Amino acid sequence: MKSLCRIIMKQAAVVAAVLLSLPSSAQNLWVFSKDHTSKFESTWPQEHFIPATQNGEGRITARDASGKDLARYEVVKDRAVAGPFTAGDFFLFEVPSDRLPAGSFVDFNATLTIEDGAPMDWVLEIEDGGKWREGKTFRCYGPAFGSSYRHTSLYQTFRLEEGVEDMIRFRVRALEGFVRPSKGEEKEGGAMLVSGSYLGALVNDFGTEAPKDTLKVLCIGNSFTYYCGTPAMLKEIAWSEGHFIDISASLKGGWTMAKHLSLETTDDMIAEGGWDYMFLQDQSLVPAKVGRDPKGMAQQVREMEAVAVKVRTLSPECRAVVENTWAYWKYDFGSFKDLDDFDKNGKKGAKILAKAVGNAEVSPIGQAFRIVRAERPDINLYNKDKHHQSVLGSYLKSCVNYLVLYGQPFGDSASDCLLDPETAAYLRSVAERVVL
């Protein structure tokens, strides 16, 4: 398996290059952060392309429907913005590669947001045998900035029908339809690749061997899921073990289950239907607060149950996984006595939530974090804010969630996701200890 293109938006303190582990001479990486804007802060506004910020010779461009430059290219808060977009205009991802034969599986993941005046409906396309093939359509709601921001993530794996010779190309193209309303200001109509710790976009060549099974999985959560591109990491680990996870995710920082009940992106994904599993990752304090005071947190329990009911309206057989996330130092241990108290109550609360949801399992991520903190203090599972997960924490979470889904030990081919192999193997062993 070969990794062709990875675009990861992360905080400067996180080494983005460690997200994926599929080796390739065509590896390309784009990072939009303060540490990397020097690589594109002149080429994007002046020459209208973004070179790979690390490794490779890939490019990102933005064009109108006829292939001409758009009117606006700028860098805003470390983000590459282009516009104004109208129907038919697109972001183009081009990455040199070895020949990919018919039957190759190629994976694309991206997160996009828009300004007022931009099209809300988009489609992902892949060039296959010299022709553009349409993939999933999706909706961007915006706005791009502020507390009400909306980011739309998409994940899709294509199987090439004819193959490509020397260049893999994807387009994220605007469609006819709704336009984000302007609130009286001049319409900008721009679209942008998202910065911060969301996954911007990544492309992988998964080879030609078909997976032995498929699960359709919906992730509903917040930054404890989107940091370091955790859904894509889970997908890669599963593929390396012979399984395909057809994954979608509705993720917004700090969001509770109550807020997801009225979030448009969550509604869109639920409406797709056919889900086998849903991962429910509530605001990081909720499980522990439920464990400490079940009666006082009864409303939060009902809200998670309501999300599950909403999913099962169209996916009646969908199983739920309630994530028991990790204890952390920030906010004075989240108002708990210490990390152990935080962990104890989180474990108890996750069980209460899972019972209320029904047909549910608990993903014991917090217990895995606790073991690593005790046994290997040299392995830092936390971001510099002592709250969110580091890339190592994302890998551990992905390993735990993988085992909850499949219930079998890792084989010899499990992906290290570009981590140190010894460290990755240890984290997988911890995941096995808490799940199996």
Protein described:
With 436 residues, this protein is an alpha+beta fold. It has two domains: 2-204, Galactose-binding domain-like (Jelly Rolls, Sandwich), CATH 2.60.120; 211-435, SGNH hydrolase (Rossmann fold, 3-Layer(aba) Sandwich), CATH 3.40.50.1110. 28% of the residues lie in helices and 28% in strands. The chain has twelve helices and 21 strands. The strands form four sheets. Strands 1, 2, 5, 6, 9, 12, 15 and 16 form an eight-stranded mixed beta sheet that branches. Strand 3 (50-51) and strand 4 (59-63) form a beta hairpin. Helix 7 crosses helix 9 (339-357) and helix 10 (365-375) crosses helix 12 (421-435). The chain is globular, with a radius of gyration of 21 Å. The model is unreliable at 1-27 (pLDDT under 50).
What's the number of helices? 12
- In percent terms, what proportion of residues is strand? 25-35%
Instruction: Specify the CATH architecture of the largest domain.
Output: 3-Layer(aba) Sandwich
What does the average pLDDT come to? 89
Q: Kindly state the percentage of residues in helix.
A: 25-40%
Major beta sheet summary: 8 strands, mixed
Radius of gyration: 21 Å
Gross morphology is globular
Low-confidence stretches: 1-27
**What is the CATH class of the largest domain?**
Alpha Beta
Structural class: alpha+beta
Q: Which topology of the largest domain does CATH recognise?
A: Rossmann fold
Number of domains: 2
CATH superfamily of the largest domain: SGNH hydrolase
DSSP, total strands: 21
Query: What is the rounded distance between the termini?
Result: 28 Å
